[in-house]
What does this fold into?
Amino acid sequence: MAGIRRRLASMLYESLLLLGVWSVGFMLPHLALGMGLGIVLPGPALLIHVFVIFGIYFIWYWRNGGQTLAMQTWKLKIVTADSLPPGKRQLYLRYFLSWLSLLFFGVGLVWVVFDRDRQFLHDRLAGTRIIFVPPTTTSTPPPAET
It folds into this structure.
């Protein structure tokens, strides 16, 4: 199981990476629409766009290796309770529940303090967990003597 500090540090780093995702996937298209065509989408459409853009980012990375870029840096990985790769349904559910967790004043993040396994609420409900993946050591043979 991954420690709380490591998971929170990964989340902080992830928020910095999401600025880049948001800039490319959200800001650039809306700037082009606004400046090029004079179109401004209503507020709810903008929120849905952010939800979809971030969902593509997270779910794609979780499906392809179980780790986002920040999780790779902090050696974290999403798995099921049986340490298997989660299915699509679990990942969609985890993503949706994590948004609810944040929108309700971070209650799902505070949940980690009370959970017996120190899991976030969205992980508990989706049947996933975050584990620490220790770095693999590769031994290279010494250079041949000449």
The first helix runs from residue 4 to 37. Strands lie at 76-80, 128-132.
